[in-house]
Design brief:
By secondary structure, the chain is an alpha/beta fold. The protein has six helices and six strands, in the order βαββαβααβαβα. It binds guanosine-5'-diphosphate (GDP). Belongs to the small GTPase superfamily. Rab family. This is Ras-related protein RABA3.
Length: 177
């Protein structure tokens, strides 16, 4: 349920992380603006966008941070993770390497973010089925092993993007409230 009112009960900071070019910026723009931009960016410097949603009668403003390309230089700093209640850890289902690096991103979160951070593993570009390089079962197994939530999304078609964010926000709400 959308809510345009100014009355906000909670602000949840969520960070989007993962290798370069997996679709982090597009997932964010799909969720906050329902847009997909074919040739986007590149602005350097951390940016966030917001969308307010209603969860169990409370208005939650999701403040979602994008690395804005800094992951390329491994320059994502602890300030980026500070105060984050949730993380979207994105890989590209067509790029095996981006999935192989997921463990490293989990370590990064464990080192810099709060212990109670809720993590959603996201296999993006699910529209490119013919180019799939990461079986769903591999990701599911990793997610279960590490205690992460899991979804496959397409920022291009919009499939599952809202669902993944809502699940994350609901879980954060469950931890906090
Ligand atoms: P980031 O570096 O992780 O922020 O990745 P971007 O959001 O800039 O996306 C990288 C490239 O992948 C761009 O060319 C996007 O158009 C493309 N892309 C992002 N999401 C999808 C998706 O769901 N499906 C397809 N086919 N392409 C996508």
């Amino acid at each position: 349920v959308e809510n345009q009112q100014e009355k906000i009960d909670y602000v949840f900071k969520v960070v989007v992380i993962g290798d370069s070019a997996v679709g982090k910026t597009q997932i964010l723009s799909r969720f906050t603006k329902n847009e997909f931009c074919f040739d986007s960016k590149s602005t350097i410097g951390v940016e966030f966008q917001t969308r307010s949603v209603t969860i169990k009668t409370k208005v939650i403003k999701a403040q979602i941070w994008d690395t804005a390309g800094q992951e390329r230089y491994r320059a994502v700093t602890s300030a980026y993770y500070r105060g984050a209640l949730g993380a979207m850890l994105v890989y590209d289902i067509t790029k095996r390497q981006s999935f192989d690096h997921v463990a490293r991103w989990v370590e990064e979160l464990r080192a810099h973010a709060d212990n109670s951070i809720v993590i959603m593993l996201v296999g993006n570009k699910a529209d490119l089925l013919d180019h799939r390089a990461v079986p769903t079962e591999d990701a599911l197994e990793f997610a279960e092993d590490q205690g992460l939530f899991f979804a496959e999304t397409s920022a291009l078609s919009g499939d599952n993007v809202d669902k993944a964010f809502f699940k994350l926000l609901e879980e954060i709400y469950g931890v906090l409230c």
